[in-house]
Amino acid sequence: MTPLDAAHAAMEAAPEDEHARLRFYDRLAGAELFLLLEAEAEGDRITPRIFPVGGETVVLAFDREDRLARFAEGPAPYASLSGRALARLLSGQGLGLGLNLDVAPSAMLMEAASIAWLAEMLAAAPEEALDRPEEVLPPGGLPEALLTALDAKLAGAEGLARSAYLVGVRYEGGRQGHMLGLIDAVPGAEAGLAEAVSEALTFSGIEAGELDVAFFAASDPMAARLARVGLRFDLPRPPPAVSVGAAPGMDPETPPKLR
Length: 259
Prior knowledge:
The protein has 8 helices and 13 strands. It has 259 residues and is α+β, with helices and mostly antiparallel strands. It has 2 domains: 3-123, Trna Endonuclease, Chain: A, domain 1 (3-Layer(aba) Sandwich), CATH 3.40.1350; 133-234, Alpha-Beta Plaits, CATH 3.30.70.
């Protein structure tokens, strides 16, 4: 069972549970997927294999390489990219997605309209602000769905920061809210971490929710203030580095171009 299998099973077991459905799509957006191609990628251009399935024209993607090979009955060209990048790539193309077809319990068919919906859900980008917290408070009143989504997102951000603290804040000027303070983020990872937190909020099902994200060094006095009152999340440390060849598909977060 992969994380995507587990999220799919939870969604299928509770078809009326909106939170279970949103959790599945959140897992799908963050998953590494292997898109079946007609031929090897040429630079940043790819040609997915297209199949007619159930009245839809779809491309096929799998959440493990061995599942793709099992479907293709042997080695086959593929591009590796995240679910969010795949949704952006397919949106507006009139193409649906066959996920893990015939090879996994999470096998499902997503129509082109569902892909467009997912891409729209993922389109909201975090906005930069320059407010400085005046008072840091224990967090309170946040839905369990959001805490679960944050925990899952940060667990998937392996090695991108040391830890995170969720706190209540009062800013200069009187604005109040909640903030997730990330400690010792890897340089260059800030935008991706902010996007992940934004997705956790989006897929938690909270209407008009808002959560600020800020970055601090462990030596910053603010880090100590956060540690005193905040709800702590520890991000997994990365495994020892191993030198491997790059998988086809370029940057997994950047959609390639269709040929």
